[in-house]
Amino acid sequence: MPYNHILSPLDLGFTTLKNRILMGSMHTMLEEIPGGHERAAVFYAERARGQVGLIVTGGIAPNDEGAVGMGAAALTDDTSLDGHKLITDAVHREGGKICMQILHTGRYAYHNKLVAPSPIQSPITPFKPRELTEEDIERTISDFVRCAELAQMAGYDGVEIMGSEGYLINQFIVKKTNHRTDEWGGSYENRIRFALEIIKRTRKAVGDNFILIYRLSMIDLVEDGSTWEEVVFLAKKVEEAGATIINTGIGWHEARVPTIGTVVPRGGFAWVTKRMMGEVNIPLITTNRINMPQTADSVIADGCADMVSMARPFLADAEIVLKAMEDRADEINTCIACNQACLDHTFTMQVCSCIVNPRACHETILNFEPTEKVKKIAVVGAGPAGLAASTLCAQRGHNVDLYEASDRLGGQFNMAKVVPGKEEYGETIRYYGRQIELTGVELKLNTRATADMLIKENYDEVIIATGVHPRIPDIEGIEHEKVVTYAEVLEGKVEVGKTVAIIGAGGIGFDVAEFLTHQGELASMHVDRYMEEWGVDMQYKKGGALTRPMPAPSPRIIHLLKRSPGKHGKKLGKTTGWIHRASLAMKQVNMLSSVVYKKIDDDGIHITAHDEEKVIKVDHVVLCAGQISNKNLLEPLTDSGISVHVIGGSKEAGELDAKRAISEASYLAAKL
Ligand code: NAP
Ligand code: SF4
Fold it and tell me: How far is CA 318 from the centre of its chain?
């Protein structure tokens, strides 16, 4: 059997997990919306049917103060037990096991009733927390215990106590957030008392045969975080206190080191859990950026952990484990770690989904039933929108022809995948390529579909997914030979010089800057190099394991220009924008806003910025000034009376993004 390390069962003494893959906790927002329990039940049941060893739910607060936001999910009494039972019953019917995560956010709460060990505001939330009194602490511990008891009553197989990522328990443990002078602060023994009391009292309340996972912050990645010796000491105490399994937490949310973004190498933090192997006798789970069975298997084979936690990969593909079991890893819809439809949704109070799988968390809404009337369908364009539309229509039983003018699949994803840190986008192209084979889509590469051709073929439906082309802004000298488009750069059609001005600082301007500031070996491909680049000390010489970042110097001087005022990258994803900004700052990219473009000539680009005129001497000017939709097929096809649909960038270039493109394609395919 391939992947036998992850697929072998794990005996916990009183119960056996059918394999070593854990579906890690994710807040999906289904926890909060009306009808959310019903939808969550279907969501988790699909993953259980997909053979995952154990599921952990999104975080549920033990009291209202600890909830993520005002009115967010909490389990404080028996009134919502029926809702939770829907989830546990659905998972058990599929032969799965499920634990509920108990999460107290402490000073990370997004409401003004927040509490913490000490009244110290976090850098990522707008509210200052109230300091917990000693009575509050006792009450909070009881709330954790009560919450676990309620979870047990609801039929969960266990709970995960969230002790990492900078949430309340972690805030007690680390000096910088715990300035208390009573028995809950001061010495390390005092600071870990809160965590240990929760575990001990919970174990006592729920009995021996209930899974109790403790998520332990093994590397805080903040100044004055725990030292390695302290982390090991805590792990031993956690085991003694009654935990069944220890899960790994990597970095606080306020840490300035990317820990889950697509820039992180696959399995990039497994070395942290590996340091803990042998220190305790209970199983250890490793996590972060493990998105394919190959990585999961090698992490376990390398002795990094007993189990592997994957969270977002289960949004991208409910059957990831099943496909690994059946040696069909090439059919896995891989999580590309973009955060665009999962975490970015959660942080903007929208129900989670997935860029490559819009069905995630929408299983009761979006379904691809076999068609009752087989149609002849043409899809024009094999970018993300066209690939999703064609394969889903064919999966439903339609006869689908997919036309692509170039010699390859993937459209703009071919450009994304060459950007350092975005290599995972290539996996989506691989996935759709395999889907084309499996669903029987008739692929016509090197074929530019014309309206006449499509009309002659008598299609019942034509789906236009022809994408976009770069906008050429109206600037004097725009035809100068030093002016090139982002497409020419990312497709390797030009050799870009040593000094470059980029016009436009949207997602693509940032991508191009990233591309041009790297050369040779990429940090995102090598764990050691990545840690060095972002200042993570793999020797763990001091608490928090931070050191001075050592970015590789940029091979070019880059000026990233935009007309609008204010900070660059404001519109980038909420959870990833800071990474792009930090990355370019490390490469000393010169970011200029409020720019008026005057002209481009042999001297370079002439601009005014903040009322100051200047000439930036550059070898090349790269245009990243947005896109224009390719719509030329629309009118003749509509005039001919064919049923035509336009999706993705060809529908609306302004808001072009893969999330909308794949989502539009999917909802269209579901109804044709
Ligand atoms: P974009 O985000 O719309 O940015 C293009 C920028 O070019 C505009 O913000 C505008 O900025 C500037 N611009 C527009 N017209 C111009 C003109 N006539 N002259 C000079 N400058 C002009 O578009 P994009 O960067 O091409 O990205 C396309 C889509 O892909 C976006 O939806 C983006 O979110 C997505 N994407 C996202 C990422 C990511 O999140 N990392 C990466 C790649 C792509 P000013 O007006 O300020 O100059
Ligand atoms: Fe992964 Fe992106 Fe999907 Fe989130 S939206 S699960 S990060 S592919």
Answer: 15
For the chain, what percent of residues have pLDDT higher than 70? Answer: 99
Whether 361 is in the pocket of ligand 2, judged by its Cβ within 6 Å, is no
According to DSSP, the residues that pair with 646 across neighbouring strands are 464
Give residue-wise pLDDT tens across range 317-331. 999 999 999 999 999
Best mutation site among 264, 346, 356 for ligand 2 pocket (most ligand atoms within 8 Å of CB): 356
| 376-469+628-671 against 472-520+555-625: fold identical | no
Q: 57 with 41: CB under 8 angstroms?
A: no
**pTM of the entire predicted model:** 0.95
Q: Which CATH superfamily is domain 9-346 in?
A: Aldolase class I (3.20.20.70)
The residues, any chain, with a CB within 8 Å of residue 373's CB and separated by 6 or more, are: none
Calculate ∠ Cα 479-483-485, nearest 5°. 110
Residues 352, 341: contact at Cβ < 8 Å? yes
Distance CA 395, CA 439 (A): 5
Cα 101 to Cα 670: distance, rounded to the nearest angstrom: 34
Measured in Å, residue 538 CA sits from the centre of ligand 2 at 28
Q: Which of 395, 492, 471, 384 is nearest to 435 (CA)?
A: 395
Q: Is the pLDDT of residue 537 over 70?
A: yes
pLDDT at 523 over 60: no
Banded pLDDT at 652 (limits 50, 70, 90): confident
Query: In whole angstroms, what is the distance from residue 653 CA to residue 638 CA?
Result: 20
Strand bridging mode 54-60 / 643-646: unpaired
Q: Which CATH superfamily is domain 472-520+555-625 in?
A: FAD/NAD(P)-binding domain (3.50.50.60)
Q: How far apart are CA 113 and CA 420, in angstroms?
A: 42
Question: How many Å apart are CA 292 and CA 297, to the nearest integer?
Answer: 9
Measured from the CB, is residue 478 less than 6 Å from ligand 1? no
Pairwise CA distance, residues 228 & 216, whole Å: 12
- Ligand 2 test: best mutation among 320, 336, 348, 423, most atoms within 8 Å of CB? 336
Q: Which of 287, 493, 526 is closest to 421 using CA atoms?
A: 526
Nearest to 211 by CA among 155, 293, 288, 271: 155
CATH superfamily of 376-469+628-671: NAD(P)-binding Rossmann-like Domain (3.40.50.720)
Point out the residues that are catalytic.
167
Q: Which ligand is nearest to the CA of 567?
A: 1
Beta bridge partners of 612: 609
Distance from the CA of 41 to the center of ligand 1, in angstroms? 39
Q: Which amino acid is at 147?
A: C
Residue 463: beta bridge partners? 379, 645
335 lines ligand 2 (CB under 6 A): yes
Q: Which atom of ligand 2 is nearest to the CA of 262?
A: 7
pLDDT in tens, 405-459: 999 999 999 999 999 989 999 999 999 999 999 999 999 999 999 999 999 999 9
Q: How far is the CA of 668 from the centre of ligand 1 (A)?
A: 26
Ligand nearest to the CA of 24: 2
Contacts (Cβ under 8 Å, ≥6 apart) of 666: 358, 359, 366, 388, 389, 392
For the record, the structure tokens of 528 come out as 């050691």
